[in-house]
Amino acid sequence: MLQRLIIQNYAIIDKLEVDFSGHLNIITGETGAGKSILLGALSLILGERADPASLFDKDRKCIVEGIFKVKKQQVQAFFEANELDLEDQVIIRREISPAGKSRAFINDTPVNLSQLSTLTSFFVDLHQQFDTLDLEKSGFQRDVIDALALNGDLISTYSKAYQQYAKTQQSLYDAMQVRDEANKTTDFNKFLLDELLEANFKENEIEEADAELQVLSHAEEIKSSLNKLYYQLKEDEQPVVQQIKLLQTSLQALSTFHQDIPALAQRMQSAYVELQDIAGDIERLNDQVQFDGARIEALNERIATGYKLLKKHNLHTTNELLTLKEQLQASLDDVQNIDDKILQLETQLAKQLVSLQGLGKQLSTRRQAQQLPFEQKVNELLVQVGMPNARIKVEVSPIELGAFGLDEIVFLFDANKSNHFAPIRKVASGGELSRLMLCIKSLVASKEALPTLIFDEIDTGISGEAAKQVGIIMKDLAKAHQVICITHQPQIAGKADAHYFVYKKTEGQKVSSHIRKLSKEERITTIAQMLSGEKPTAAALENAREMVMQ
């Protein structure tokens, strides 16, 4: 329930505060006084886009604040999901800076417009004149029937199941696309893989074979040089190793004559040991190097095969070939497994479809059960609001399974008891649409937990008894809901629990809009003026008094 609305610096409103009743709140005033501007400001805290041009004073920011009393269980899930503090009162605020920047707050916590719109949709329904266009939309018509059928939980279950079904459908489509694309390259990839499997290279094999070939191709040159080195080190007439040993011995003999000589002698000893080791390694290496013509031929063939594959695949190393082989194998494995995946998805999709159709049939049954009761109740209300010849008819037609079930719901309308029903948009006038919307919303409101219903001049195009009946319907709605209504009809204003009057006032060089709650006597005078003009007659005053007292 909207307890208080505070508006600062919006349109022709400098500053305005209004406390609303929990039942039927009526707002009246002269045309252009600013009645609908109130609802324009209110729409800002309901999540509508802000227009910087709407500032009263271009140098100050605009602030619109609404204080709502809510049932915690109604919005608890939203507050928890958005990590907001929940109290008995919810304060919603919008600010528009002179630069055009807009900010929104829920209990002083900054939020985005999507969050704001989602929250306020739980407890406010704002009906403006152009909202009658919703009546023409199949989505709105379906929502009306679903609300009356109390299909909320079932629709939620169906929607989740449908989303999962659509996800599985997409997965199946993607898998089939992969299979079709893979089938185009499978044979070629298999040929490439067989070629690599036949070559059967090991890690670093081409590089190691190239190095081995270099050794074998120069075996004689290597052995000749190694033999010469070994001979000079160990077997020459004056072997280098032996000479180093003699020099070390001579130097060692001088150790007592100079303090630096022992270190030099030690270094000579180390050189002797190192050359001994080198000579041994040369001998072993010489024994290992052997010319092998058959091995050279085998290595040449192996390396040629490797280089051919490297060039073919634009690669550089053996390990890159091995990686390619793994990729080709994985690709072929995927192709072999994709059929199994497709079969699994087809089975899963079939099960989901059966479940979804079952939920859809439940929705259809419950929707069809609402057809006649809805038609009867709306038609009764149409008579009440001065449309005795008008009839509504609900057409529920089967369609292919979709996001909202197995039905297409269309409201058909006959304004003149002609039994020629047609879609609402083709046959209903603006005034008829307004009254029809009121009748429908009064039924829906009885099924939904919307605490606040707001109507902006829904009485357009009616007067007299029809206006009186609209007032009766609103009064009845206000027993269970807070209703805020802007009206020009005295018959509706007479039903108010709280009557507010909007007026303009000149202050300095500016004209601003104000609002005040009327006393009982002020209400009578105001309603009398609505009946007969600025200077109401005694009869008008008496008539107004009767309206207020009823």
- What value does the Rg take, in angstroms? 46 Å
Number of strands: 15
CATH T-level fold name of the domain at 1-123 and 450-518:
Rossmann fold
Could you name the ranges where pLDDT drops below 50 across 5 or more consecutive residues? none
Count of helical regions? 17
Oligomeric state as shown? single chain
Largest sheet: 6 strands, antiparallel
Into which percentage range does the β-strand content fall?
15-25%
Termini gap: 25 Å
Query: What share of residues is helical?
Result: 55-70%
- State mean pLDDT (0 to 100 scale): 86
GO molecular function, one term: ATP binding
Protein name: DNA repair protein RecN
Domain RecF/RecN/SMC N-terminal: 1-508
Function: May be involved in recombinational repair of damaged DNA.
SSE topology:
Layout: E1 2-10, E2 13-19, E3 24-29, H1 35-45, E4 62-69, H2 72-81, E5 89-96, E6 102-106, E7 109-111, H3 113-120, E8 124-127, H4 138-148, H5 152-199, H6 205-217, H7 219-235, H8 240-253, H9 261-288, H10 293-312, H11 318-384, E9 391-402, E10 405-414, E11 422-423, H12 424-427, H13 430-445, E12 452-456, H14 464-477, E13 482-486, H15 490-493, E14 498-507, E15 510-517, H16 520-532, H17 538-549
Parallel strand pairs: 3-13, 3-14, 8-12, 12-13
Antiparallel strand pairs: 1-2, 1-4, 4-5, 5-6, 6-7, 9-10, 10-11, 14-15
Helix pairs in contact: 5-11, 6-10, 7-9, 8-9, 11-13, 13-14, 16-17
